[in-house]
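Async update (no meeting this week)

Hi team, since we skipped the sync, here's where things stand on the single-chain job. The sequence we agreed to prioritize is pasted below, unchanged from the tracker. I ran it this morning and attached the output directly underneath so nobody has to dig for it. Comments welcome in thread, and please keep replies under the output.
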Amino acid sequence: MILKGFEALQQFLEKPRNIVVVGHRNPDGDAMGSTLALKHYLDKKGHKATVVVPNEYPEFLHWLPGSETTYRFDWQNTQSQKAIKTSDIIFLLDFNALHRVGSDMQNTLENYPNDFAMIDHHQQPDDVTYMYSDVDICSTCQMVYQFIEMNHDLDLINKEIATCLYTGIMTDTGSFRFRSTTSKTHRIIADLIDRGAENDKIHNKVYDANSYNRLLLLGQALSNLQILPSYKTAYITLTDAEKKRFDFQKGDTEGVVNYALSLKGIIFAAIFIEDKEQGIIKISFRSKGSFSVNKFARTYFNGGGHDNAAGGKSDLEMAKTVIKFTSLLPEYQKDLEISYEN
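Output:
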């Protein structure tokens, strides 16, 4: 764990401040849950907090308390720029490096004259003035809970904050099934339920709000599933044409890679998604056991994340990206064989 400048940050926040809370590009449940929860908490402490995210986030997260007050940098640029320029400090949540917000917003943040405070659980964070980093914690939302706890303010957690935090922990732990879900995580979840988080309703709003086209897209993805049993690996591809055929919306591929990992005997899973707008192949990696997809993504696909969940990208076309991926597997065959007890 890295805890840098915490007491100085506490002193800085003793007076009311204008604060911007930023999440990463393509925000997921943990990014939106943590940023909105922190906003609600800071508001209750007497600050004026504004959430700014780089771009759109999935529709199944739009119901989160406070979502309607969030600015999108790509769409509400004037409001976003004004909030940033008039802020006294910026909190960076659920990402470890400024490039994770995308080039346009990155340029703005790099010219920001005041300090950053980072709360994040990804490996190898950039150095900022104030930092709370812990790669062993399952989600940034759990870290926000613990940040509030370190400030002796758990009594300020109301239903809105509890709902946001529960959502982020639930989504980033795969509904509490990943190895990073500890007994402490469950104790925190129990406390959030006691403070108003309605676990059944939150689960339904996130996971039981599929459109017809999203299910058809999932069917297409599963029909593209390829298995490489010699390497205990499975992967999925989705082309831009396939996405358009099923009216792809932001968040429609969330969690699809986990279907590949759910196969018996599979240790390593990947999904390759063509993004014509950015001219890249977006990649999500998942693994079981000791095989680090963070190292794999950092080494070969300009990415990173966690040991068992990471992302990356490829500038090659789909076919060449898949060839590159599969050609690397023989080098890791032994690592994959011993990674996990099946």
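Quick observations from my side:
The longest strand covers residues 268-275.
The longest helix spans residues 29-44.
Reply here if anything looks off.
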